[in-house]
Each structure stands twice: as C-alpha cells, then as structure tokens.
Amino acid sequence: MAGDTNKPVISDRRYREMTAAGLDLLDQGVTVFDRNLRLVACNRTFLRLLDFPDTMAEPGLPFEAFIRYNADRGEYGPGDPDVQVSERVEAARAFKPHETRRRRPDGTLLLIRGFPLPHDGFIALYSDITELDAKQTQIERQQIEQEAAIERRTAELTRANAELTAAIEDNRRITAALRFSEARLRQITDTIPAHIAYFDNQWIYRYANRSYAEWFGWTSETMANQPIREVIGLQVFEAVEDAVGRALDGEEVSYEYSLTAPDGMTRFARSTLVPDVGPDGEVIGCFVHAVDITEQRRTFSALAQAQKMEAIGQLTGGLAHDFNNMLTVVMGNLAGLRETLPGHPVIDEFVDPTLEAAERGSTLIKRLLTFSRQQPMAPEPVEVNELVLSMARLIRRSVPGNISILTQSKTDQLVAMVDAHQLESALLNLALNARDAMPNGGALCIESSLEPLGRAEAADLELPPGNYVQIAVSDNGMGMDGATVARVFEPFFTTKKFGMGSGLGMAMVYGFIKQSGGGVRIRSRQAVGTTVALILPCAARPAVTLQLDAPASVGMDLKDRLVLLVEDDDDVRKVVRKQLASLGCTVLEAESGNEAADMVENVASIALVLSDVVMPGGMDGRALARFVRRFRPDLPVVLMSGYASSEPGRRGDDDVPMLDKPFSRDKLAAALTSLGR
Q1: Cut 0.85: pTM above it
Q2: How many CB atoms lie under 10 A from the CB of residue 12?
C-alpha cells in the first residue's frame, strides 16, 4: 500500500467545484439536502427553472428558505404563506420518494421527483415538461379524434359489409390526406418571404415556391421538371454554374447574382445551396434558399453616394473659406488703389476689370458654399406657381428668340418650404443649361405639380414617403448619355468648352435642394432632351400678416474709436486694418482669440471687437464673442466669416452680427455703424 501514498489527493474545495461544474451541465434541475434539510448542492438549471437568485445556491441554506421564498411570491397560489411553508417542510421531513407536477405562475409545468439518499439525505430532480405536456395533450387529443374517426369509419365499413369497398375507401382517404399535406406544405412555403426551390443531381428543378418561380417569370407548376439552364436563362446560369456544381459535390454554397426583370430594372439576389445527402452518402439534390437584396443594394449605393458628396462638400467648404480670405485681400487692396488714384487711367483699364473679376469669383465661392451646405438659408413657405411665372418672365429675356418658354401647373396653390432666392437661382441655372443644350432652338417647359412619393421612390431620393412639390424643367435639346448623367452633379464636372462653364451649376442645385430637405431626379436621352425635377417639401400656405415699420437704429460714430481687430491671416488683417483706418478708427490687432481675450481684459478703451470666426488655437471667434459678452456685456462684437452668405443684418448662432467675406469698406462701415448704443 506504500504506492498509494503517491496518488494525488483532491481537496474538498476542488471536489465541490468539480461536482458543481458537473451538475451545471445537466439540463435538469438538481438539489441535494442533508438530514437536517440544509442544502448540500444545487445546479444553475434548478435556479433558472424556479427563478431563484444565485445567492440561494449557498450550501447550508435551509430547505425552508426556498419554500418561504416561493410562498412569499405567490408560487403556491392563494393561501396563508405560513401554512404553505409549514405543510411543505413537514412533508419533506418524511424523506419519502415522490413525483409531482407543479404549474408555475408563468405557465411553466415542472416535473419534480424526489428520492431519499443514505444518511437520511434527499435528492430532487426538476424537469421542464411544459412542451412535452403540450405535445402529449395534443397527441392525446389527436388520438381521441383519430379513434373517433376510426370508429365512425369502422361502423360505415361494417354496415357496408364489403371489404373491397372498405379498402378502396381507405386508399382514397390516404390519397386525399397526402394531397392535403402537399397543398398545406406548398401554402406554407408560398407564404414564406423567401425564394425556395429544390433541384436534383441531374440539374432538374423538382420544386419551387411561388416567389422563386415568379422571380424567373415562371409558375410553380410550369417550372417543375425543367432544366436549370432553361428556367434561369443563360446569363444567370453562366454566373451560378460553378456554385451549383460545387453544391452537388457536397459543399454548402452562398453567392449573389443579378438579373434583368421584365420591367427592365436590374434586381439582385443572395442564394444559398444546401446539399441533400441520401442514405448512401451521395448527394441526390440541393435545397435552394434565396432572398431579394435589391433594396439593400439600393440603400448601400445611396449611402455611398451620400458619403462621397459629403466628403466633396467638406473639401469645397474649406476651399471656399480660403478663397474668401484671398478675395478679401484682393478686393480690399484694389478698392484702396482706386481711392488713392482717382481718375487715373489705370483704374478704368486695370483696377475696375479686376474688381469685377473678383466679384465674379465671390459669386463662384457662394456656389461652392451652397454645394458644401455651409451657406445658411432662410426657408419659408413659397407659392411655387407664382415664383415659376415670375421666373419665366426673367428667363424669356435670357434665352434666344428661337427658344419658346412654356409653364404649366397641375395643382393650384403649391406651397413649398424653401429659400425663395436660392430656388430662383436654381431655376435660372437649369434654364441656362437647357438653353445651351438647344443651340438651334427648341422648347423649354417648367412644370409644377404635387408629387406623392411611395416607399421605393422616396428611398431612392433618401426622403420619407409622402407628398412633395415637384418643379420639372424640361428641354428637347441634345440630351446626355448615361455616363454624363451619372456625373452631372459632381462639382467642377462640365461638358461645355473650356472657359464656358465652372462645373458648379448643377452641383449648386443639388446641394441647395438636399439642404432644403428635398431631392433631385434627372432623366435624359441623347437627341431627345433632358428633364430635371426638383423635389421639395410641402408647407402650409403662409398667413397674410401686416408688416410694421421697424424703428430706425441708432448708428455708432466710428471716429477715433479703438477697434480690436482679430484675424490670424496677416494679409487679410492688413487690408481690414486699412479699411478701419480710412473710417477714422484706431486699430488694435490680435492674431488669435486668446490674445484678443487678454486685450479685452486689460485695455478698457476698446470700443468694438471685429473678429474672424475660424482661427487656430483653443478660442475661435464665437468663443471670443461669448467671452466678451460675459466679461464686458456692453462691448459690441462683429464676426467676419468666409462661410456665410451675404444677407444684410444676418446674425450668427449666438445672435452676434456677422459680416461675410469678401467685403468692401462700405459694407464694413454699414456693419459697424449699425450697432446702436
């Protein structure tokens, strides 16, 4: 026995852990109580089946605690909980084998079996037999029904006393049952929102539900016993042939494919082939499960396009800001040169044309800002029919006489929620594009209507379903091919000759309409023409209100005022400083928001702060304005921005006056003197 001393000894703790882990693997609840009715062990299945907390799995817990927990939560139904506990604890002390069924309040049916153990211990097993009981009840009910049917049928056969007739009748009944079962199965599979089929190892379809058959333009009846190639067509067959072969070799295969629907639309499906293996291990066919993923593809495509346009918008917004700073320098210096040399020949020959070019550049920047969705708008209810008629009169003066202008409205009182000025600009842009597409003359039609969008149409435009106002601008000009239509809204893309177009017109229209909560649809055919439809959200007809004259504002005298100029761009700061000096101001300069904040704190004579919005560092123009408002509430602040649109009197998000770059000295003076004391 000396060798036995080398055997590993399992500690009591390790033994308990192994026992608990083993019990937790059982799908039955297990409890073991000692002779004093104290818990020796239980598994997690027991706690789960009876909804006991994990804290009650502690060894040594008395049996009465479990009964008390159940009684207090109404597990045993109505009655005195103390009596319920006393009766059950007293019955347990008998340590007798028992088997009971108990229906829990949640409807779960438990089978509880108890068995005494040596040393007066007791083990109980808990099984969830809810489903088994339901099935048993169903089987018993069916058995009763079947027995009744058999008895009735036996009585009929006995009365007929004809064995042959009885055999024929039995055969007929079985056949009817099989047909009913088959019809029932087909009804179920036809109801499932998926494409289901089966083909054998001879590449012949043996079954297809309605959705699968209609997907390929067949019916379930005509598709049966047809070759795969014949059913799905050569184009799809060539795409899936390899996958079918691999599936018939025993591999479960998933793949995607596309086909052209009878309506000309391309549709996409994801299909899974599951091999059907016979008793001998050979693949005798394949089950097919497929789903239509066309909508999913459309959503992904729309998301990708939106992300692309958003990235381009962010890029153009940054470019616009930098260009506005440069134009501020150019226009400011040119204006200064014109004032310095009044009447000089160089002004008419060089300075004025350059200023006009800079103004056109400013307009171009506004288009960039509109496209990048950084240009604020003032949407309001607009009567579309009236606006279209007004624009038609303007367009007639902008197109040659060989182009006729037609307007048409299918709905009276069409009201859209949109910025009227931006909409007029968009319509003019489309009209000029249509003019360029009809060099030999033609017809331009602007049609307005109420357009209901269903779920699929709205999804294509990334809009919620509902009613929208549509303005369609159509021409019968040269039209565009598919490749051109696909890129028509890209910024800087143009089909015009070099120098004839900026490539921002359609991008501006797209950005404005999307920013307005709408969408754009375009249809074009070469040598037929183009239609661009603007989809805008509807609005209630605006109420007529009386406009009262606003009180005149008290202007600020700028002479000898100390103005704190905050601008990180040296060239821009230099130009604005000159403009302020020409207005009689004394200028104090800062290159950052933090530097300006220190000056506001320490220089009490500062009478006005003029700050750029976008600046490096931890404090931009808006943060500086908030600081000034807290530290010196009476000190006026005007912000300069290269992102905003030119709108007189416009205020920023913090109700701070905003001056848009580029600006002239007159605009600067108007912005500063409008600050009343």
Answers
A1: no
A2: 7
